[in-house]
């Protein structure tokens, strides 16, 4: 089983790549709740870029069958 995720926002890149030798299914999730990108131009030229992340979560976890009460 191979899982690969690539997330790129502006100049930041996140890569998750895993190879597992198991038959147990896994869930992979990337959560980027908020990214603010501000670009400032002067005389028609880009002079500044600000990137603010509220948080990034990368999760790779096994998925087990539900338990019965």
> What is the approximate shape?
elongated
Order of helices and strands: EEEEEE
Q: Could you tell me the strand content as a percent range?
A: over 45%
Biggest sheet features: 2 strands, antiparallel
Strands across the major sheet, in which order?
1-2
User: In total, how many domains does the architecture comprise?
Assistant: 1
Report, as a whole number of angstroms, the end-to-end distance: 31 Å
Structural class: mainly beta
Q: Helical percent range? A: under 10%
How many distinct beta strands? 6
**Which residue ranges are poorly predicted, with pLDDT under 50 across at least 5 consecutive positions?**
none
What is the typical, i.e. mean, pLDDT? 85
Number of helices: 0
Radius of gyration: 18 Å
Can you characterise this structure?
The chain has no helices and 6 strands. The protein is mostly beta strands. The chain has one domain. Strand 1 and strand 2 form a beta hairpin. It is elongated, with a radius of gyration of 18 Å. The protein starts with a strand and ends in a 7-residue tail after the last strand. The relative contact order is 0.31. The mean pLDDT is 85.
SSE map:
Elements: E1 2-9, E2 12-19, E3 26-31, E4 35-42, E5 45-53, E6 57-62
Antiparallel strand pairs: 1-2, 3-6, 4-5
Brief descriptors of the model:
two-stranded antiparallel ribbon; elongated
Short characterization:
This protein is an all-beta fold and 69 residues long.
């Amino acid at each position: 089983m191979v899982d690969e995720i690539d997330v790129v926002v502006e100049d930041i890149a996140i890569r998750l790549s895993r190879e597992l030798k198991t038959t147990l299914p896994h869930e992979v999730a990337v959560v980027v709740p908020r990214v603010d990108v501000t670009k400032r131009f002067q005389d028609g030229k880009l002079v500044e870029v600000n990137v603010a992340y509220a948080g990034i979560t990368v999760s790779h976890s096994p998925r087990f069958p539900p338990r019965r009460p």
